[in-house]
Amino acid sequence: MSFVKEGCTKIVIADRNSDGLEETSKLIDAATGCDILKVQTDVSKPDSVQNMVDQTVEKFGRIDYVCNAAGIRSPRQVRWRAATKPIDRHAEQ
Ligand SMILES: NC(=O)c1ccc[n+]([C@@H]2O[C@H](COP(=O)([O-])OP(=O)(O)OC[C@H]3O[C@@H](n4cnc5c(N)ncnc54)[C@H](O)[C@@H]3O)[C@@H](O)[C@H]2O)c1
After folding, report:
1. Spatial contact of 87 and 74, defined as CB atoms under 8 Å apart
2. What total number of domains does the chain contain?
3. Which of 7, 44, 67, 77 is most buried as measured by Cβ atoms within 10 A of its Cβ?
4. Which atom of ligand 1 is nearest to the CA of 72?
5. CATH number at residue 63
6. Is the four-CA dihedral 83, 86, 89, 93 of positive or negative sign?
7. CA distance 25 to 1
8. What's the whole-model pTM score?
9. Which residues contact 55 (CB under 8 A, 6 or more apart)?
10. What phi and psi, each to the nearest 5 degrees, are found at residue 14?
11. CB neighbours of residue 24 within 10 Å
12. b or e along 58-78 (b: 16 or more beta carbons within 10 Å of the residue's beta carbon)?
């Protein structure tokens, strides 16, 4: 929403959650009517990210700005006590 509020007229939204994509798309559309491309994407999978980039360039020709805010919250633990498994999963990519 921040991008469209600042004047972007073409926007790509990507998330692995298709329901969330649909909901966000409706919010942006209702507020702005700008051109929206929804791409279901898993940012932990390089092929999925490449697909999103390819679809974006095909539809809009280029990418001007990117905001990667995909993420998960760790269990409520002090970081140094948290299991390393989620970190290892990203490090292996
Ligand atoms: N909200 C805050 O104040 C805050 C502050 C500091 C850090 N963070 C961190 O920023 C990140 C995002 O926080 P948020 O509050 O926006 O969380 P959120 O849960 O509202 O949004 C995260 C989004 O990422 C998506 N997602 C998760 N894994 C994905 C994947 N592999 N591929 C594609 N999409 C994926 C989820 O479906 C969700 O829509 C988290 O890692 C969080 O720990 C948030």
Report:
1. no
2. 1
3. 44
4. 41
5. 3.40.50.720
6. negative
7. 10
8. 0.81
9. 12, 37, 39
10. -135, 135
11. 17
12. eeeeeeeeeeeeeeeeeeeee
Structural domain boundaries, residue 21: 2-91
pLDDT, tens digit, 9 for 90 and up, residues 36-60? 999 999 999 999 999 999 999 999 9
Type of residue at 42: D
**pLDDT recorded at residue 5:** 84
Atom of ligand 1 nearest to the CA of 45: 31
Q: Ligand 1 pocket by C-beta < 6 Å: which residues?
A: 15-17, 20, 41-44, 69-73
Our mutation pick for probing the ligand 1 site, out of 23, 25, 53, 73, counting the most ligand atoms within 8 A of Cβ, is 73
Q: CA 56 from chain center: how many Å?
A: 12
- The pair of structure tokens assigned to 44 is 């932990």
Cα 67 to averaged position of ligand 1 atoms, centre (Å) = 12
The alpha carbon of 48 and the centre of ligand 1 are apart by a number of angstroms equal to: 17
